[in-house]
Design a protein that fits this description.
four-stranded mixed β-sheet; Trna Endonuclease, Chain: A, domain 1; 119 residues
Length: 119
């Protein structure tokens, strides 16, 4: 079954999570092996990060803007936020804007890094 404009098929990883692509499911399996081996900690699947707070302007209410990454985990005490992307999805305008907003808000110090996993 095709699930998006990039013709990727939904896939299930060995842990039973449904992912947007075969590549993402494979990466989930890799990360779970790393978690079991003690290489990473605090693995989260599709974590949400607030980019812009909700606010009201006169008569109009604007909802919050969030970024949903594919994975987040800690390695050597540093939070890594990871997205598995193909060449096509890396060029998506909305993705680029949200990635830049995420990096502006969260990657200002050495405590959080963003990793775009494109194979």
């Amino acid at each position: 079954m095709r699930n998006n404009k990039y013709n990727a098929s939904k896939r299930e990883c060995l842990q039973g999570h449904v992912h947007d692509s075969k590549r993402e499911a494979f990466r989930c399996n890799e990360l779970h092996r790393m978690l079991e081996n003690g290489e990473i900690t605090d693995l989260k699947i599709q974590p949400r990060f607030l980019l812009i707070e909700p606010w009201r302007y006169l008569w109009r209410y604007e909802r919050a803007v969030e970024y949903v990454a594919d994975f987040s985990y800690r390695k050597d005490g540093i939070l890594t936020v990871e997205d598995v992307k193909s060449e096509a999805t890396k060029k998506d305008d909305l993705y680029i804007v949200k990635r830049k907003l995420f990096e502006e808000r969260y990657c200002r110090d050495d405590k959080v890094i963003f990793f775009e996993n494109a194979r």
